[in-house]
Give the backbone structure.
Amino acid sequence: MQAAAARLVPLIRTEAPKIERLGAMTPDMLQALDDIGIFKMAMPPELGGSALGARDVVEVVSTLARGDGSVAWMAFVAAGMRMVSMYPQQLIDDISAKRDTWVGPLCIGASVFSTVVGNARKVDGGWMVSGKWAFGSGSKHANWASVGIQFETEHGPGRAMAILPMEELKILDDWQVMGLSGTASNSIATEAEVFVPAHRVIDMRDLDGIMGSASHRYSGLAFKTSTRAAVLTISIYTVSIALGMAQGALECFVEQARKLRPFNLPYPTVADMPTVQVAAAKARAMVNLAATVIRDHAAEIDRRSLAGEDFSPTEEPELTLDLVYAARLCEEATNNLQIALGSSTARLSNPIQRFVRDIRVLTSHGALRLEPLSEINGRHMLGLEPFSMFAGGLAKVGG
């Protein structure tokens, strides 16, 4: 799949400006991603997927990101199908019914672990659900959506996820942002209460058991991972996007520096400027270091998955922070390349400016913010009561 992704890079770079203007994948891009199996890369072979391990994820996702970050984000959207594949069978049957004909992600997630979710009340046979859910990446291409809901129990507030067909939801088209515009990460909402059958609602208290059932139900390396390894693999998806964008920016930088002439120095090309040579070398070193960390951690996830070994509660946040710091290195390298090349990168036709904006938005994602994750790790290191990854986002549930 990595080789197929590499062959798509020229098309991705051609389509990238259109994707940004459209706020979604172009039909040609969506079809191309579907053709090489991106939307099934996290699904088990039993459902027609590839169930890629973490190391393969790095190569496929970073290769797509060399072309464009929004396109690579579609692979992250597809990663959610690993969890979806572990839902109860009746729900899996609903979601996967069109797996051989649907072009795009079968199911997306929106505000599942957010502080602001929808509301639900129990009725005969299921739940009445209403609300608005932000950050529904892939909203314009999906068939189903998994959304967070809250409800009252005799023990206090409860949390669950509800899975609804997109035809019952309205896309608000409010993803008007400085970067990753093509991810279609719009809010989605109900226009009134909608009925959701009981089998399409999953209580958050049952999530650990569902996640832990993977190896007993499916083959494929992605389904041999423990719950902590699966969470780490999600981080692998996102930081691989940063890695690929930095690699793509470096490729564009080298190509452009060899052609451009300096504005106020007597060198034949920008590439002949010592300051540019230093900037290029430093950026490559930063990207190489980031790649080493990301690939090594991905390989360790695969090794432990094959060996049936887990990560400890202290290892998971430490490895996550390593990955997030690697993404920050990629962002810094990309920013430095733009500064070194100068005003030519300000043109919207220049892919480097898009890499700069996209990687900034990427590293602003709650799961990739360096300072909060550093605090989580610092508490571990100093013997203080630890915070979980979603300590601020997933409320304590009743029962």
